[in-house]
Design a protein that fits this description.
The chain folds into 2 domains: 1-213 and 270-330 and 439-446, Rossmann fold, CATH 3.40.50; 337-434, no CATH class. It is 42% helix and 16% strand. It has helices at residues 27-31, 47-62, 130-145, 152-164, 186-195, 197-210, 271-279, 295-312, 337-349, 355-360, 367-385, 389-408, 411-434, 441-445; strands at 8-12, 35-40, 70-74, 84-91, 94-101, 172-176, 221-222, 225-232, 240-245, 252-255, 267-269, 288-293, 319-323. A 6-stranded parallel β-sheet has the order 1-13-12-2-3-6. Strands 7, 8, 9, 10 and 11 form a 5-stranded antiparallel β-sheet that branches. A hairpin with a 2-residue loop joins strand 4 and strand 5. It is elongated. The two termini are 36 Å apart. Mean pLDDT is 89; it is low at 1-24.
Amino acid sequence: MTESTSPETDVTASTDRYRCTPAIPKWPALAAGRAVWTGHQPRFWHPGILAKYLAADQALTAAGDRDTPLHHLVVDQDVQNPLALDVPTLQADALGFGRVRLGPVRVDVPTGRQPAVAAALPPLPPGTDPRAARGLQLITHALQRHADQPTLAWQVTHALHELLTPHLGRKLRAHPATDFAQAPWFNDEIDRLLHDAERCVAFYNHAVAQHPDAGIAPLRREPFRVELPLWHLSWNAPRQRVYADLADTRPLLTVEDGTPISDAQQLAPRALMMTAWLRRPGGIHPECGLFVHGTGGGRYERITDAWWTTWRGESLTPIAVATADQRLRFDAPVHTSTDHQRAVWFAHHLPHNPEGALALHPPAADTRAQALIQEKNALLASMHQDRHKPRRRKAFHRIKQINKTLCAQAPQALQNAQAHVDRTRQGLVNATVAGRRNWPFVYHTA
């Protein structure tokens, strides 16, 4: 439990067959009688993101509410490619991954401002994991069933809800962030932001500076204008930064090149503004009683709380932080760098000490080999104290001859040692893929 401007609750959600149990008893009470929200960009999430929705669902259930929908904030003002999905591949012992694109997406345009697509499953990379192949089929079919949606964000969101249904105990109600502009309070908030721009940005940047680990950049401050925590959106066009032009007595909203913004309906909040509006008392209907974040959101909400409290003097509603790690298991060797270093050391050590292989690998060394081993041990013992260089050199060459003769009696041991080097080298490469926790959750359940 950590203290902040608004209460914050940490929850680690375990995805054992996609069930999760509250780790802290306080957070279900925060959900009682008020709406529980969570959210993310519209894409096919990994289990760590799914954990937020499981935790929010469990918060309501633990509060005795089994019927109220879970409110899903769709971050559709963001830019991304939700239809480009990585797939794990396995060929022989080599793990890898390829990328599959299910449809054309403009990565410079917010998903809420470009059209839905005709999704299709292309040929898969060689060796594609069967679980990923089945998951991609489910995703593609869900996208095809919702191709009539007005935006790509809505298409992906409806497909997501369809795929999430087996794992949640309640319905989801989607709220795109681009719809904030239609709220009755929106114009008043924009006007307040514009006319208090300098104070707003000063407090914002101060809070950002206090939490450099959150990954949030400060807003730009220039002579006679400041950047606001908003985006200007147009249909099928890149989003633009928004500024308050303060050169005149009356402030003016503009985009970066100075063009005035005449229609506030084209504005959407950036991350901190979005959750601040959502979490402020009476800000959104239905009013947020608890917002469930992932670890990234949990970090940046410390900025939101500090900024909003100092700028607006309001306390925001509580958040919970839920996360989970779940990895696909593969029938392939996986090794650490220590494993590989040991294998390399042993493969180098063995030709110089083959008597160990003869003792460990039957048949045991014959009488001739035993005599060579005894001779080698005697030479090593004498060399330790012998300072006569020619004699030492002669002993050294004799030891090399003995090692070569002994190695000829243990060829399989030498081959096995080198094979283990190759196996651990491949296992080290495989570990990168095997350690990934960001495969779409559908791969785990398909």
